[in-house]
Amino acid sequence: MKWKKAVIAILLGGSSLAWAQWDESQVQALKMPQSGVVNDHLIVGGQPDEDDFKSFKSWGVVRVINLRVPGEKNFVAEEEAWAKSAGMEYLSLPVAGKDISLEQSLALKKLLGGQKKTLLHCSSSNRVGALLAINRFLFEPMSTKEALAYGEKHGLKSLEEMTKGVLNDPETQALKKKITAGKKRIKQYGMSLKGKLMDGMKKGPAQAVQSCQLAVKEMRETGSERVGRSSLKVRNPENSPEPALQAVLKEWQDRKVGADDFQLVEDGKSMILAKPIYMQGLCVTCHGAKVSPDIEAQLKKLYPQDLARGYKVGDFRGVFHTEI
Ligand code: HEC
């Protein structure tokens, strides 16, 4: 039988393109209790056993987030070694059942960003369901009841009352309001900029560079609340990121986050909501490696320190950000 195992290992390890995507029935067939699929890159459940890791590996899981507290009853200390020997990153975010809170759910939200295939688990998926419910409530247009139902779908049981308490807490409600308003502000800003860019493009791309500059300037001056764009390679030095935002930009550069993935960033005194920006076809006209001579000339004139070049469609370009 030994050779068979070796062949399977080669097949599994040979090509990352060969990973099979999981389907709901396969995930539910695991030994891991309450196992389920959240989306294309996240599966959740209770405590997995060593055999389950073979399935995780065959699906291309590269990261394990364990919410169990080391030393709690029936804690499986070997799991870290199972994950590591399967080539997975192992992250521990210890959350005791009595500690379900807004802070813990935000800490989890930070870890979950990105498209890395991840297994998130606790002992019975109760804590998983609780924290996912709080996150969904904060970032989606969802009532308390809907958020709890979402949590239940992913394992929330005995922690339901406690989770309800967090959802109904004035601090959570206030943060949800701020996030909702921030998301709206970013959306309006993005749409307005794009509209002005398209108008400018009608007059010719070189003219559009100037329209873009004027539009941003005008929005910067008239906007009562801080909203803007930033990048690791800026065209306008005024868009350079502050340290907290720079950390997010670096992180998002490495692990592609979903286009609609919002993240909260604390920069000491204030809270910032950020959303990734990806390159589209239109953007290459002014941010690609090669641009037309008239655009080149305009950029040289208006942005002598321009760094925002060399991007391709689909590249991570930067973030929208707004103080909330
Ligand atoms: C007509 C040329 C033009 C096109 C097309 C264009 N941009 Fe820009 N872009 C600019 C200019 C000019 C600036 C600098 C604006 C300012 O002064 O803040 C800029 C700035 C930015 C910034 C802010 C960070 C920085 O580099 O200063 C981001 C992010 C950005 N563009 C992304 C995009 C994306 C995404 C698209 C496609 C949807 C796009 N751009 C299309 C000209 C363009």
TrEMBL record:
Residues 1-20 form the signal peptide. CDD domains: PTP-bact (cd14503). The keyword Lipoprotein does not apply. Keywords: Signal. It holds the Pfam family Tll0287-like. Residues 211-321 form the Tll0287-like domain. This is TIGR01244 family protein.
